[in-house]
Amino acid sequence: NPVNLWELDRVQVSGLDPFRDDPEFKETPHLEEEKALSPVADLSKLDPQSFCSCSLCNQMPSIAESFCCQERTYSVKMPPGQCLSKHIDFDKLLEKTVLEINLKLLWSCGIETADEGLTNSNLRYSAYRSL
């Protein structure tokens, strides 16, 4: 029975549940993650010739890692058939100083990493976030 909030007294307002309309949380596995992490049934999906458009992809250990730069959306657009790693700014993005500055910028924006150090793992995360 809907009631105007302004018509309720202080005791009635304090008894309201502010989260009453929130949906129930149900723990469900994410199918895409399960597929990506599961053992590869079809080894042909790991073959770069089956997914690569730039001719520079290497074979990776999982399906989640087996993709071409031409399949993803990045800030930089490359012409068809040209690899993102051949872009003029790509080498600059991998310089340690640039990665450190980018990582510190990410931290200042509230993005957390596994640890707060200038580790190789965090610098690699910074590099992928730069693309």
**Percent helix among the residues?**
25-40%
Q: Give the percentage of residues in beta strands.
A: under 5%
Query: Counting H and I runs of at least 4 residues, what is the number of helices?
Result: 6
Report on the biggest sheet.
none
Q: Overall mean pLDDT score?
A: 80
Unreliable stretches covering 5 or more consecutive residues: none
Radius of gyration: 24 Å
Sequence of secondary-structure elements: HHHHHH
Number of strands: 0
> Termini, distance in Å?
52 Å
Structural class: mainly alpha
Query: Can you tell me the overall shape?
Result: elongated
What would you note in describing this structure?
It contains six helices and no strands. It is mainly α. Helix 5 (96-108) crosses helix 6 (120-130).
Fold topology:
Elements: H1 10-14, H2 31-37, H3 48-51, H4 90-93, H5 96-108, H6 120-130
Helix pairs in contact: 5-6
Compact summary:
With 131 residues, this protein is mostly helical. It has six helices and no strands.
List keywords for this structure.
131 residues; mainly alpha
